[in-house]
Design brief:
Pfam families: OMP_b-brl. Belongs to the Omp25/RopB family. By secondary structure, this protein is mostly beta strands. It has one helix spanning about 1-20; strands spanning about 30-45, 55-70, 75-90, 95, 100-120, 125-145, 145-165, 170-180, 190-200.
């Protein structure tokens, strides 16, 4: 009798181990990579309050990574926080300033934001985000007086929204639009981004 009970208990335990609990895609920590389109627009003043003659813009490819944490408040509501780091390729903006040539070169950016989303179904999250953004920018002015270079960190804010779809219990994909305002020096420095991301959910 004892042997039968013991065998039954061992079989039940083995079955419990063999069937792991289903992971919650939108509940817990995650990391990911992103890529997409970036359009930067600059007008008025740049670094060191250097005025430019007209608005300039540049389109470029942006790549980056992110890490965050989702908290599932209930069956439909998800909130969380995320940190990201990115850089663009061939994204220098060139303008004129009082007869001189100005080159504005964004080096890299990072951001800290909060997300709030609604689960349309178990696999699809529609969300909005907002938070802090920072970009390291180098400006070069070439004039008759010589070449002047300046580097600075621009503080700003971002807002955006998108949709994220669970592909498996661990992998999800997102499509997102972001607007970032880095014009804290009295001028205009805006970024418009359309991004695709792949996340691994722990």
């Amino acid at each position: 009798m004892k042997t039968k009970v013991l065998l039954t208990a061992l079989a039940s335990f083995a079955g419990f181990i063999a069937v792991p609990a289903q992971a919650e895609t939108f509940d817990g920590p995650y990391v990911g990579v992103l890529a997409g389109y970036n359009r930067a627009e600059v007008a008025d003043r740049t670094i060191e309050a250097q005025p430019i003659d007209a608005e300039v813009s540049r389109e470029a490819l942006v790549l980056g990574g992110y890490a965050g944490y989702n908290y599932k408040v209930n069956d439909r509501l998800v909130i969380g926080a995320e940190a990201g780091f990115s850089g663009a390729f061939d994204d220098e903006l060139r303008a004129q300033s009082a007869g001189g040539s100005v080159t504005i070169d964004p080096r890299y950016s990072f951001d800290l934001s909060a997300r709030a989303g609604y689960l349309v179904n178990d696999k699809t999250l529609v969300y909005v985000r907002g938070g802090y953004a920072n970009s390291r920018v180098r400006t070069t002015l070439v004039s008759d007086d010589g070449t002047t270079r300046a580097s600075d960190n621009l503080d700003g804010w971002l807002v955006g929204g998108g949709v994220e779809r669970a592909l498996t219990d661990r992998i999800s994909a997102r499509l997102e639009y972001r607007y970032t305002d880095l014009g804290n020096n009295g001028g205009q420095y805006d970024q418009h981004q359309a991004l695709v991301g792949i996340s691994y959910n722990f």
